[in-house]
Amino acid sequence: MVNLEDYLKPLKATKKERLEALSFIRKNRSRPQQLFNLAINSSAKRSHIYAAWVWELYLMEDLTRLDGNWIKLIDEISKIQHPSMRRVHSKIIWLYLKDKNRYKTLPKKEKERLINTFLEWILTENKAAPLNFSIRILGFFSKDAPKLRNDLEEILLHSKRTFPKGIYPAIRTVFED
Fold first, then answer.
1. Which among 50, 54, 149, 170 has the fewest CB atoms less than 10 Å away?
2. How far apart are CA 47 and CA 152, in angstroms?
3. Shared-domain flag, residues 101 and 28
4. 174 and 109, same structural domain?
5. Alpha-carbon distances of 117 from 89, 129, 166, rounded to whole Å
6. Which helix or strand (DSSP H or E) is residue 89 part of?
7. 108-142 in b/e burial notation, b at 16+ Cβ within 10 A?
8. Are 32 and 81 in a shared domain?
9. Is the pTM higher than 0.90?
């Protein structure tokens, strides 16, 4: 049996090869967990980045596939430094939490961990996509947390930090009212 990491190493970033890798994952029941473990590996080797891209495609088919790995994702996400991996995981979390039932049942401790992670990403990340998703996620939480809303206002509207132009629509969604 081919090692998943070895399978992913030579692949290119083309959509065609990502879809082929997704097909490879679907053919074996043990592969999705291996894929997740590679996708959250913070060392960000080429195979880990690629695994994150394929993991995103896999979850986009059915977000409930994340249910069994949700806690582990929250445990590991703050360690991820690579912008492409941050994009994937922040997008997945944003889509996952858009489901009002998941958002409403999220324990306070998990919310706090996500808030801390995504606040740090807003302060340290330079790429538009992970910033965009981080802001949108924090926008969910800010509706129930006035202090967070004030912190976001200070960081996003009043700080001297310059953000990529692509994140301004996300900022507007947080401060719509």
1. 149
2. 34
3. no
4. yes
5. 12, 15, 21
6. helix 83-97
7. eeebeebbebbbebbeebebbbbbbbbbbbbbbbb
8. no
9. yes
Indicate if 17 and 53 belong to the same structural domain: yes
Q: In which residue are the tokens 């740090």 written?
A: 120
Question: Which two structure tokens, joined as six digits, stand for 85?
Answer: 């991996």
What pLDDT, in 10s, does the model give residues 52-85? 999 999 999 999 999 999 999 999 999 999 999 9
Q: Which residues contact 1 (CB under 8 A, 6 or more apart)?
A: none
174 and 128, same structural domain?
A: yes
Quote the tokens at residue 78.
Answer: 């703050």
Q: Which domain holds residue 11?
A: 1-61
Q: What is the phi-psi region of residue 44: left when phi exceeds 0, alpha when psi lies from -120 to 50, beta otherwise?
A: left
Mean pLDDT of 124-146: 94
What is the end-to-end Cα distance of the chain in Å, rounded? 55
Please name the amino acid found at residue 37.
N
